[in-house]
Amino acid sequence: MKRLKFYITLLSVIALSLTGLRCTKLDSKVYSQVVNDNFWQTPAQIAAGKAPAYSALQGLGGNSGIYWENEISSDEMITPTRGGDWGDGGMWTNIWNHFETPGSAGASDWAWGDIFGGIGKCNYIIYTLNNLNPAPPTLTADLAEMKALRSYFYYIALDLYGNIPYVTNFKQDPTTVATIPRAQVFDSLVAVLTEALPNLSTVTDITKYGKVNKYFANCVLAKLYLNAEVYTGTPRWAACIAQCDAIKEGGYSLMGNYYDNFKDKVQEASTENIFVVPYQAGIVPAGGGNYINVSSIMANNANFTFGQLGMGNNGMSTTRTFYKFYDTTSSYDTRVVNGNTNVYRTFNDQRTGQFLIGQQYVKGVTYPPHQDILYASSNTGKVGVGPADPGALMIYDDQSGLPLSYFDTMYLVSNPAPYFRLAGLRNIKYWPEPGGNVGDNISNDVPVFRYADILLMKAEAEVRSGTGLDDALQNVNTVRRRAYSGSTSHDWGNADLTLDNIYAERARELAWEMVRRQDMIRFGHFLEARTIPDKAADDPDKHTYLLPVPPSVILSNPNIKQNPGYQ
Amino acid sequence: MRRQGYLKDFFLIQFTVLFKIKTMHKSAIFKLRKARFLKRLFTIKVMTLFLLLNFLQGKAEQFSEIVTLSLKNAPIEKVFKEIQKQTGYHFFYNEKLIRDAKKITIEVKDVSVQSVLQLCFKEQPFGYAIEDKQIIIKAKEIVPADEKTINTVTTAFDVTGVITDADGKMLPGATVRLKGTTIQVVADQSGNFNLQSTATSGVLIVSFVGYETKEVSFSGSGPVTIALTLKESKAEEIVLVGYGSAKKKDVTGAVSSISSKDFSQGLVTNPMDQIQGKVPGLVITKIDGDPNSPVVIRLRGQTSLSGGQSPLLVVDGVILDDINQIANIPPGDILSYDVLKDASATSIYGSRGANGVIIINTRKGRAGRTQVDYSGYLSGSKVAKTPGLLSTPEFLTEAVKLGLDPAQLETANSSPGTTNDWVGAILRKGITHSHTVGITGGTDKFNYRGSVNYLNQQGIVINTGKEQVGLRFNAEQKALKDKLTIQIGIVSSTTDRDLVNRNIFNYAYVIPPYIRIKNADGTDNPVYQYNYQSPVLLQNMVTNKSKERLTQEYGTVNYKLLKDLTIGVTGSLTKFNIQGNYYLPVIPGWNNLNSATKSSSNRDSKKGDMHLNYLKSIGKHNFTATGVYEYNYYSYETYSASGKDYVVDANTNNALQNGNSSLNTINSGKEEYKIISFLGRITYNYNSKYYITGSLRRDGSSKFGANHRWGNFPAVSVAWRLKNESFLKDVSWLDELKINAGYGVVGNQDAINAYNTLTTLSAGGSAGGVTYDPTSANNPYPVGFSPNQNPNPDLVWEERHGKNIGFDFSVLKGRLTGSFSAFNDVTKHLLYNYTVQVPPNFVPNVLANVGSLTNKGVEIQLNGAIIQSRDLTWTLGGQITTINTRITSLSGTWNGQKLSTDNIAVGQASGRGLSSNPITFLIVGKAPYTFYLPHYVGKTPEGLSMFETETGTTTNYLEAKNRYINPYPKFTYGFTSNLAYKNWELNIFLRGVSGIKIFNNTDLNLANYNNLPSVNTLKEAVTSGLKDNPTPSDYWLENASYLRLESLTLSYVVPKINGIESMRVYLSGNNLFVITPYKGLDPEIATVDNQATPAFIDLTYNGGGGFYPKSRSLTIGVNISFK
């Protein structure tokens, strides 16, 4: 008996110590994520590894700080506070009024996060590609592509924040990261882009859709040179012209219809778009899509005019002052349709049709939106409040009970009156495909660089530098003829080729395309007071040319300095 | 049954029992001499056995043992041995005392131990007492001389009667003495007695071990029935202390226990409901009235900022992997809760004990006759409070003021002139019924309990509720001369949930009242506007269900290897599956795509341990030691698939493949981790006076980097039982006084996911993203792969260093008992997602152990018996807790980088026009979620809010001077009154919170005049006179103190009915009233931070946090026992 006990004890001790040794292994497998070391092995994996640098751009589709800061701080977009809607602690009106401070800035902080998040991704990808063993055969091209993309992010940062940390090495000691003066960042970007150019693809077909090619890099350089005087104090007009010429070698040309650059699917065949950020409602970006259109129009407008249910956030609008840039001359056509006598309007300038103004009707706007716009009808049956009479055409706002009619006389940036819900003009440049929405999103891809912009940039550089004025006139008129559907009767003469006119032409051509803030600064109009609604003139110290650096960034690294005027 | 699970640690009690016997004070009415060495060893061995039995069978079974004896002229020792063999009772005696014992001749078959003892001791010069399962032989009571002198016999008079327990069961063996005399008898097997009195009237003193002594007067006429009540001595309660148990008086840490008699009754559907407000320091919050909402459990305050904060729940020794699994356990199966609060008590759970531990003990099998119990109730609930919205006339009045033509609004879509009660339309009266049947039985070698539970709870919102079927079975087998004990348990439950779409509450509040609910043909009006959809239609037409299945199998084998050493293994398997089902049909008038989703998640675990227990006693020195090796493996797998655009709605989500395949989405994921632990605990006490417990746990987790996998969690605690000191021994009013103090370290790893220390790539989503490739027809939307985090290989456990002091007391023979604890906990290596710069970092934050916070608090519990008479008893009890939480640091360095985030915005005011409005912050030196708000000082004649500035007032809140406001309650409390008269009992339970501040975000949205006339508002929008846009200020920060009548129960014990062992019926009301200055629907909202509900911000109206209204309910129930 005693012996038995001894054996049991002995066995137990042995069993315990054995299991104890074996069962101290704390390994755990990774299942639904991928360990970094196991990736980057095949061309497909390298492509998927580079993809996040592109998806970092997807905020440009109207749901990001970058977009809002570029647009709402300019005169072409305002998000007024309507009743309780879009109050958001004054965030939107602060951008419009240039009241942002380091403590209050929401959109500005988000923009910084999006930009530097993209830069971080590029740096990581560059670092990883550089350290692959064996090196992939496409290494040189891949590195150039990622560096060009990173430079684009830095260009936005340079433009919005000026003095920024410039980090290109993923492994840089974080304690050595510090703010670099704007001019120095400019020089670095020019150097990196110039070095990348020869290694970038010159392919412009569908296989490079939404991808970096050589002309993308040329565009970034052209933008840098165009604004070089603002960024560095030294103009670089000739360099800008040279880059625009280089882009021309890509064989780009304007589309016959302005809107074909913005309409989903159709835009894929655009010969004008140089670089786009693609969207697919509900899928690209993950669960999102293009947000510009729906953030502007009202719900019943989206529903009854464009056949989109549950969309329309009644936010971003355009003011009377900006709409004044447009040629609203139109032809009117009266037709009897379904027993109703309807008046249809067609704008002479295609581009004027991107803004909705006045009473909205059921299916009152068709593609392209500058022509055959239902302007008036003998049918005054109401839809949108209560059940519609069959065949009713006039849309009402279900929330105020008022006829859904947009007006441009917005005298306040914040007004709780019911009628103010309808204040401001709405943009439908991104034509919403009926029924194509998912949530608050549509599928239209967003052009970042468009050849019409390049033509106007070149013309501006030529006018400013007083060289190649014939070329400038020709380029401007190319843009204007397309706007007037091929008509030459609106061409400019030499006398028209003034900076003010170019400034106005850029407003008409590039509204809501993230160039207006930059244009207003370059043309010297950014600090000016505005009317309807009123905005006071900015402090002449020009500190509002730059946005405040987010306090959290400075908190995490004291070497990063706040911009002047915000301390 | 108090004891279950880890039998291996029973030595704790063994020793203390031993002490009690060996250290009896000399002045006691009996005494034991030091036993000889061998005798003592024998004692230990036998005690081990009977204590084991005791644990398995429980106190309640002390009369169920049956004895058969056939002896002639046997020495009394032989009788003892025989009884012990048959019943497991053991005898303790001084050999000197039984030297004069008379020989015994006895012939009995299947009679109770009590009866046998009575017979055997009838003629003996000594008596006996039964304590637990020990029979202590003692000298016969010496009656004081002064009482003797009164004893003058005149005439004999027979006083007859019967002694019963509180339930009316006959109680054999009680001693009945005539007051003022030495005349006494012992009640027979049936509890009957016949006493020869000297007078026709007098007072009987009835005493029995384990019961309260009772004095009853008699006066000649007929037999008397005397019901004895069980003695309730808190100090004798056994509490589970993790991997073992101890008597309450021997516990050295802060442990609160609550047993079934103290549970709340009425509409109890989640086990945590029945102890809400009852335990000091334990705050249980029902975030709303949804039958499917989880409860939020916090013990001793906020211990972490990003880590999990729920206490560890241990059910029958098995740790629940997910706190929500608790809802799958039928409340009626639970016998007791032991709440381990301070770090010295919880450190035995090491890396998972930071938030405290609640040990839940379910009902177990008992030897004896098969017993069948049924408990059931039927409950009706209705909404407790609805918001005061504008009626149609009121709404139209305002619309006209705003320049609108009512005729324009009132169209065919509306019911002109009538107020449509949309809130009423989504509500109903909910019926809940619950039935539990339990069967217990067995012999001393084998016992079991099985139970089946059914619960059907209708929510008070249409088409919501849950239906639960649960099965529990546990059994125990002893073998190899009782050296081997095997226990097994199986738990299986299925819960079907009908879920609520949380957007419906906001819709119901904001739909203008002139819009009608039903069409003329009786169908739901398919209202679909930007701000609202028909909540009735959503709840009626959309399928939104889930099914949960919880299965647990567990077993323990213990073998008594040597007389001081037990070895054992425990293993458990848990499978927890949740299936989600969603279907949105094509809704007439909506023009929508139908869509369907099916999802499933499996949270499984495999756990096991090997344990060794050693106990030793030398003189007055008593030691125990425990050693455990543990292995825990966890895995979590999910999948879901969705489709859209189906030709028919009939298949709902059962044929996902039949839709438009281009709109299909699929998702799946899996992760796993392991925790391996070694733990040891040593306890020592000297003479039941001085106690010390030390424990050390070493945990290893696969979640950490290679160099940081192992962490050590030590604890030490001491206790001193002052009552056992000579200077207090004779203080008769003091029954017990014990002081204790402890220090321990515990960890928290919940915030750390399985792979935080690795550079892992995530595909798609926000990290990798999705891109568009127009050249690929097969895969036009390829996903990207990108690191999803800054890996932190330096992560370690968040540690809570806890200090606790306290005392327990009992005075006036238990009439007043109480406990007091004060604690000071410091959370170090505070995990938070600290901000870092990008680049060079990958994402702008990193999970790191940098900051610290403190929790200081005091807990007081008092119970008093105000009236204790034969027919009437009245007891009062209460607890109060106050906790002060402060963030002490949020900065440090990580990987050479400075992490400095001393002012983090956490909670936002939200709603229409309210994005980007942070109002609560994490600030060093202040409580977490401190508000920082403009101070409202009044309004302008135009109705604009005015706020305080440095120098005056402003209407621009951006220029206002903000104030910091700590939202935490000053204290929380609970109060119970229990009044019993004969068979009737009335129990009232109130609980409350004082000094808490809640930001009424709901009113900020719903009481905003500017939302008119697009949506409906609260009447307050019109009456408040405020006309500005929603602006967060302290105007909306309200005092949300409250006092809630949680339950009121009237119960009646039905007198004995043939065939029924016992029967109790009750009528109970829950949440009958709430007294509060708070204007919202209910002052009790989640005061912790999670995605749906930011701390201290009432988002009642809001989508994800939409508040399912709380209910008021009335319940009738019955508990019946058959034997």
Account of the protein in words:
Chain A is α+β, with helices and mostly antiparallel strands and 567 residues long. Chain A is built from 17 helices and 16 strands. In chain A, strands 6-7-10 form a three-stranded antiparallel β-sheet, with no helix packed on it. In chain A, strands 2-14 form a two-stranded parallel ribbon. A two-stranded antiparallel sheet of chain A has the order 3-4. In chain A, a hairpin with a 2-residue loop joins β6 (330-337) and β7 (340-347). The longest helix of chain A has 24 residues, at 107-130. By secondary structure, chain B is mainly beta. Chain B has 14 helices and 57 strands. Chain B has a 22-stranded antiparallel barrel. A five-stranded mixed β-sheet of chain B has the order 15-20-21-18-19. Mean pLDDT of chain B is 81; it is low at 1-64 and 142-155. At the A-B interface, α1, β1, α2, α5 and α17 of A face β27, β31, β35, β36 and β42 of B.
Taking all residues together, what is the mean pLDDT of chain A? 90
Instruction: Give average pLDDT of chain B, whole number.
Output: 81
**SS field, number of helical segments of chain A:** 17
User: Helices and strands of chain B: which structural class?
Assistant: mainly beta
Gap between N and C termini of chain A? 86 Å
Helix vs. strand class of chain A: alpha+beta
Largest interface: A-B, 104 and 108 residues
- Regions of chain B with pLDDT < 50 over 5+ consecutive residues? 1-64, 142-155
The quaternary organization reads as heterodimer
Beta strand % of chain B: over 45%
Q: Radius of gyration of chain B, rounded?
A: 33 Å
Distance between the termini of chain B: 18 Å
Shape of chain A: globular
Principal-axis shape of chain B equals: globular
Structural Rg of chain A: 28 Å
Helix content of chain B: 10-25%
Helix share, percent of chain A = 25-40%
Number of strands of chain B: 57
* Tally of individual helices of chain B: 14
Largest sheet of chain B: 22 strands, antiparallel, barrel
